[in-house]
User: Which sequence fits this backbone?
């Protein structure tokens, strides 16, 4: 690397209900319940780690965060700050209840602009609770940025990104000019554990809480969604079959089952 | 709003349309006779097959080395601005489909509904069905406002049936200037080689997960898949851990499989995984934890250690010759 490059990276982090607790729908609105304690989505820890490593390799810069969550929740953001991010913007607004992915993308893009933009915006390929998976590319379009989704290896060379992008058949090597947006797959880097010092420092790092109206995005929530949930039904349940404890001979059951289906 | 015209974002691999593309064309023509395909690179080469499955026209937007997301969406928008008015654009739930539909969603300022398995054009509007919580619950969502509606469907949601149609008429789309947003270029393409039947076409799939303990134990999965003439698969956890390539992944962000037999070894059954394999005809699960969700969908569940059960099973099957 030649001269030091001050690199600013903004990571989109989602704070989600603990995945260990089974998901549920809010009976009155038919949307995912997100009112319990929230944690940093595991998928986003990879993006935070990658941002920290890229800034480190560039020889300087900083990592900022944007997030959208109800009730001014910051627990997940604090985890990312403890890993080493410098500051964040949290969009928390009851009017955002029921927002679709497009509105979410507009909100997060506006939050990125509130932080003055970035050389690189990083998001996870999809969240662990909603699985919509369109928000990163929608944000890129709102921000007018080129993008590379499903990045599994990322480097910055001569002011451009070099990315190995996962495909159905293998991977593509892609070059992309900065500024840009990427979505990263889990496993792309090994997220660090926050140190005790990091956790203490995170408590005083700035998180600006804003409303949708502060960002100039309207309409939001139910009014903004071009969709209406009209029915929720139980799927035809698959009958669980025979469950047995292995006594050392259970493999024989499998052999018998395969025989009965004429596989062997 | 009734559907009078549909576009299907069509993809090809090795000079033929993907099965997900043909499934969408099959469904589309049951909703309206006015079905067009919209492709990126190489669309003219698959016009015959697209026509056979029901597309009367194919818009071809050649984009060279540029990633398809920005390019195809920009071309779609240009054709719409030029006077075409699809009521619905259907996308396969694939990487490229996801990129194109996301960009389109912003260009049209319309919501996009993803991960669907069905669509209905009824008296109350156009409604899509999405399974959530690993498929336990089906959510119906109706589009509001005017079209074009944007919807993505999981592979294998619809059967794939020829309509016996003649080749689709090719309409080449002049690619507009993509500006800085179109700056991402593919330098080289890498295909990861695999042997045996393809994961999403195999009659038998044997998948391994974190319960295998370590990467080396994945050979047990490959061995068993080999004996059963099936394909080896994997949970996201061990793909993320780098034990096997991504092309092995079964689940939400991997392949959707519907084999005759699915064997899940050391896989607990996260939502992410279940949506990719729940459609299998017969499911066998081996897992140490008897509370693992995978047992809820298994026809035969063995509560036990994969390190003990798999070697014995492999030995017994080998002994049969």
Assistant:
């Amino acid at each position: 690397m030649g001269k030091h490059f001050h690199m600013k990276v903004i990571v989109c982090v989602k704070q989600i209900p603990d995945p260990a607790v089974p998901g549920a729908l809010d009976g009155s609105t038919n949307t995912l319940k997100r009112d319990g304690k929230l944690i940093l989505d595991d998928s986003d820890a990879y993006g935070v780690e990658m941002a920290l490593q890229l800034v480190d390799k560039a020889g300087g810069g900083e990592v900022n965060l944007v997030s959208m969550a109800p009730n001014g929740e910051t627990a997940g953001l604090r985890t990312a700050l403890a890993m080493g991010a410098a500051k964040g913007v949290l969009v928390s607004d009851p009017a955002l209840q029921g927002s679709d992915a497009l509105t979410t993308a507009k909100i997060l893009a506006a939050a990125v602009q509130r932080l003055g933009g970035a050389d690189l915006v990083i998001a996870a390929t999809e969240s662990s609770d909603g699985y919509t998976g369109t928000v990163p590319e929608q944000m890129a379009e709102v921000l007018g940025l080129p993008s590379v989704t499903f990045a599994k290896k990322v480097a910055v060379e001569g002011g451009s990104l070099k990315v190995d992008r996962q495909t159905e058949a293998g991977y593509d090597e892609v070059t992309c000019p900065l500024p840009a947006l990427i979505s990263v797959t889990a496993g792309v880097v090994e997220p660090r554990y926050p140190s005790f010092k990091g956790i203490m420092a995170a408590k005083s790092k700035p998180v600006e809480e804003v409303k949708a109206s502060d960002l100039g995005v309207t309409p939001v929530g139910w009014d903004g969604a071009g969709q209406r949930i009209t029915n929720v039904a139980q799927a035809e349940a698959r009958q669980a079959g025979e469950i047995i404890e292995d006594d050392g001979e259970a493999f024989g059951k499998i052999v018998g089952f395969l025989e009965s289906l004429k596989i062997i | 709003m009734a559907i009078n015209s549909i576009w299907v974002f069509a993809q090809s691999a090795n000079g033929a349309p993907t099965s997900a593309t043909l499934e969408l064309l099959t469904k589309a023509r049951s909703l309206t006779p006015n079905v067009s395909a919209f492709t990126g690179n190489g669309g003219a080469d698959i016009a015959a097959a697209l026509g056979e499955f029901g597309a009367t026209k194919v818009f071809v937007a050649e984009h060279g080395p540029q990633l398809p997301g920005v390019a195809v969406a920009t071309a779609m928008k240009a054709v719409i601005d030029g006077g075409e008015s699809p009521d619905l654009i259907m996308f396969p739930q694939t990487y490229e489909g996801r990129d194109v539909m996301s960009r389109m969603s912003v260009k049209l300022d319309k919501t996009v509904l993803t991960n669907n398995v069905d669509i209905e054009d009824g008296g109350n509007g156009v409604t899509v069905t999405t399974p959530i919580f690993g498929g336990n619950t089906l959510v119906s969502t109706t589009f509001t406002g005017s079209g074009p509606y944007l919807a993505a469907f999981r592979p294998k949601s619809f059967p794939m049936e020829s309509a016996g149609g003649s080749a689709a008429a090719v309409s080449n789309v002049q690619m507009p200037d993509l500006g800085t947003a179109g700056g991402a270029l593919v330098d080289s393409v890498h295909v990861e080689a695999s042997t045996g039947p393809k994961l999403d076409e195999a009659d038998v799939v044997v998948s391994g997960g974190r319960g295998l303990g370590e990467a080396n134990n994945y050979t047990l999965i490959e061995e068993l898949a080999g004996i059963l003439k099936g394909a080896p698969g994997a949970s996201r956890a061990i793909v993320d851990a780098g034990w096997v390539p991504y092309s092995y992944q079964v689940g939400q962000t991997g392949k959707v499989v519907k084999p005759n037999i699915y064997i899940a070894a050391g896989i607990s059954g996260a939502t992410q995984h279940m949506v990719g394999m729940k459609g299998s005809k017969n499911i066998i699960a081996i897992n140490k934890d008897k509370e693992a969700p995978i047992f809820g969908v298994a026809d035969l569940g063995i509560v036990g250690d994969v390190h003990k059960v798999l070697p014995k099973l492999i030995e017994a099957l080998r002994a049969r010759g």
